[in-house]
Structures are given as structure tokens and as C-alpha cells.
Amino acid sequence: MAKGTIVIDPGHGGTVEIGDSSANNAISASGVLEKNITLRFAFLVRDALQELATIGGHTLQIHLTRETDKNLGLCDRAKVAKTKRADIFLSLHCNGFNKVVRGTETLIRPAVSNPKHAADKAFALRVQKATFNALKSHDVNAKNRGVKDQKLGVLNRGCLGARPRGCMIELEFIDVPAVDVLLNVGANSPQVRSDTAKAIAGAIIDDLKANP
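Predicted structure:
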């Protein structure tokens, strides 16, 4: 059985930048905003975690940094995990670049400013593998961009605290038309979203089991 407190952070939100958190970044080929995709995925991951808890007898406390279309500063997002004494902090985002580049990647705070780098990396590898495999099962063109170090404000240990294992996942490049079909507008997109959320939830449970 797994036991722990989880904070899921749907990136962006609202209409104005607050505390270095932009209201929105990427936009899908059909016009779906990243902030709405991340919130939808946060709900799905929460639901999947609750289902796994019921089935597996896990004891989980699950919190979202936002449940509506509002923005929070990066440090305030991280502080939710600190306040809740979370074991896990997962920030959900989507990429956008040139409507061609695609793939899934997971980011962690570099070791120079992160005493939990090794634990964060182990968690990030689980999330990355699970998410990529779920997307790959629906799209042979899915690409694994791996786990990378990046100095992200939302993973700042001064705000996040020393306790949680934390990472940010960039689910895909939503400005690519094929990804928009995969995740947003295709007939099979609800199933893809569900399978991906369940995979992420499974990775979180695995990480909690590995760190009792």
C-alpha cells in the first residue's frame, strides 16, 4: 500500500501574469489553451489517484493548486506543497514551439540548488516513462525527450520546502496539429487523456511505495 500527500499543479490560469506565472503559454492548433488542458489533466490525475486508492487500499491526500481558471505566482504554487507537507509535487504543463517539434519531457531543479536532486530525478523518470508509454500506445510518432535539469521557479526549494519530491512535466507540444488531434479534438482523445492520467497516477503511486 502507498501512503502520502500529493499536490498537483495545473500550470498557468486566469488572464494576467502573477508572480512570474503567465496566464497562458502554449495554444493548440485548434485554439485550446494550455491553461485549460493542464486543469483538465489535473482533474483526471486526481480522479485516477482516487480510483487507485480505492482499489489498492492506499491512503492518499490529494490537493490541487487551483481548481478554477485563476493564476497563482510560481512561489505560491510551490508553497501549497510546503503548507500541506506534501510528499509529491507535480506541475503539469504543455509545450509549444514551431508546430513541428514534439515530444514529452520532464524537468527537475538542478543539483546545485536542489539537495533532493536524486530523489526528484527518480520521481521524474517514473512520470516521464509512464506518460511517454501511454502516449506512444496511441501514437507511434510520440517522442521521449527525457528528464532534464532546469532552474524553474515553481520548483524553487525555498518555496517548495525540503520535503516533497518535485518535477514539472511538459506533456507534449500542443501546437503540433497531430498532437492537437491526439489530446484535444480527435475522436479518441478522451481515451488518450484518460490513459495518460492513469499512467501518471500509477507513477505517483509507485514513487510513494518506493519512499514509504
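Summary: The beta strands are 3-10, 59-64, 88-95, 104-108, 144-149, 165-173.
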